Amino acid sequence: MRQRWLYGIVAAAVICGGAYQLTAETPDQAARRVKDQISQLRDGMHAGHVYTEEAKKKFNKGAKSCASCHGKDGKGPKMSLVGAFTKMPRYYKDINKVADLDLRIKSCIENSTGKKLKGKKARKKVKPLAFYVASLSNGMRLNLKRPSRMKGKEKAMFNKGKRMWQQKSGKRDFSCWSCHVKNAGKRIRLQGLLDMKKAKSMKYWPAYRFGGTKYWTVEDRIRGCYKQMKIKPKPKYFKKDIIAVEMYMFHLSRGGKVAIPGLVR
Amino acid sequence: MRNISKVSLGLMLLGALALGLSACAEGGAKKKKHKYTGSYELYIAKNFQGKDQKLCGETKGRIPGSQMAAFIAAQKKLIKYPGGNPGNVSKGNSKRGEKVYTNKKKGNCVACHCGHPKPELVACGNMGVSHRGYAKLGNTKKHTYDYIYNSWAKLPCSDMIRAGVHKLIKPQDAADITAYLHDKNSSMNTGVYKK
Q1: Which of A212, A215, A226, A251 is nearest to A102 (CA)?
Q2: Which of B147, B184, B169, B163 is nearest to B99 (CA)?
Q3: Of A11, A30, A35, which is closest to residue A194 (Cα–Cα)?
Q4: d(CA A82, CA A59)
Q5: Dihedral (CA of B42, B43, B49, B53) sign
Q6: pLDDT reading at B7 higher than 80
């Protein structure tokens, strides 16, 4: 008799559980589920790591390579790149420009080889190296210079970035600020809007985007933002304006612990 | 001689006309392509930003009180009504309104507003308030219409997209959405989804 009762209870539990799964989840639950899944994936290994590891080979490859100046794997002893990413974008004397990771690598290649990189070829060369060089700073904290201590070109760049961050424009009346600070934490459809200050999201860029199997640096991401704001054409790579916005984003995410390559949607 | 010169003149004129026509046709067929050189910030300001947007961006949405009245008056002027008559605001089709409300390519209200009884169908966002039971709030239809068409006329620098001003929806669409929200028997107010 008892066993029958037990069977009954177990069967009821199974049916109830099934019914619970069948009931549709609310948008809130769905968004949280996706977020949890991504955070679980972040702990493990993903395609971004493979990409970075391949970039390491490129870094050391050839008679005249990055390694011939920066030491094997970029770890010195002279001109070590460990921790260089945490202070970017900043002013560089040799090119007389404020440069982010992408532009710095591009100008570095141009200076050493004497040839100018252009268009898609430039992106193709720069991107993997950006992944590798940034990953050398893993575990360190993002530490852009405080705005009060900036001078000259850096200060001008920072102010420009701040203006562009707030620039409401386009057919959707969007600005970076209105979604990523004011309405942060809310959703557009199921896509959560993250708070740049809380999430410190610059800590995991350059990142691997599993949505379209893309390897993106911050510059690619900012161009994507302008596409969503319906502004054509997108800003050009390696130019002042894109670096200005990037600089302000690094200012907001100061203190974040670097974990590159990131994994994002 | 005279005849010959006349003929040649005529031919030349014809040729010039043909050239001009072909140039016109090319100009009409080609779409205006935006290109920018120099500062992207200035490029946006010139081509994709109105005065009102600039003011909202720079003040982070807090317009100085002295400019508020002029701002709202200017925004109200941008509102257009179906058939040019504000009275037509109440002449909307509730069922069509529901379609515009949920359609991603038309109104796309569900991107930010919940309240539609079948959320798993439309995966609503929560940037805006829920519209469930909107009819009970007691807003006038004109208020609702104005808010949909140009939200800045009611709440300056609101984050709600000015769908009408940017021509993402037509005046009739806005009237239909208004009817859908105010209709006591619509799925939004009863909370029962009917196909």
Answers
A1: A215
A2: B169
A3: A35
A4: 14
A5: negative
A6: no
Q: Which among A28, A30, A186 has CB closest to B127?
A: A186
Catalytic amino acids of A?
225
Neighbours of B42 (CB within 10 A): 11
Mean pLDDT, range B91-107, rounded to an integer: 89
| Strand A207-209 with A262-264, pairing | parallel
The backbone torsions φ and ψ at residue A214, rounded to the nearest 5 degrees and listed phi first, read: -120, 150
Q: What is the pTM of this model?
A: 0.81
Residues of A with CB under 8 A from a CB of B: 24-28, 30, 160, 163-164, 166-173, 175, 177-178, 182-183, 186-191, 193, 231-233, 235-236, 239-242, 244
A214-216 and A207-209 as β-strands: parallel, antiparallel, unpaired? antiparallel
Contacts of A168 in chain B (CB under 8 A): 49, 53-54, 56-57, 157
Selected for mutation to probe chain B from A171, A173, A182, A241 (highest B CB count within 10 Å) is A173
Asked, as a colleague might, if the bond just before A89 is cis with ω within 30 of 0, I would say yes
User: What's the pLDDT score for residue B28?
Assistant: 44
What sections of B61-170 are H helices per DSSP? 65-77, 94-102, 119-122, 141-149
Rounded alpha-carbon distances, angstroms, from residue A132 to A91, A123, A229: 21, 14, 31
Q: Are A131 and A52 in contact (CB under 8 A)?
A: yes
Range of lowest pLDDT (A26-30, A173-177, B123-127, B152-156): A26-30
B119, two tokens: 């959320």
Q: Which of A160, A169, A189 sits opposite B53 (nearest CB)?
A: A169
**Is the pLDDT confidence value at B26 over 90?**
no
- How does DSSP assign B64-91, residue by residue? -HHHHHHHHHHHHHT---GGG-GGGGG-
- Best residue in A189, A219, A245 to probe B by mutation, most B CBs within 10 Å? A189
Name the most confidently modeled range: A45-49, A69-73, A154-158, B117-121: A154-158
Residue A132 is predicted with a pLDDT of: 93
Q: A193 vs B127: CB contact, 8 Å cut-off?
A: yes
Answer whether B40 sits within 8 Å of A171, measured CB to CB. Answer: no
Asked if pLDDT for residue B66 goes beyond 70, the answer is yes
Q: Inter-chain contact A27–B125, Cβ cutoff 8 Å?
A: yes
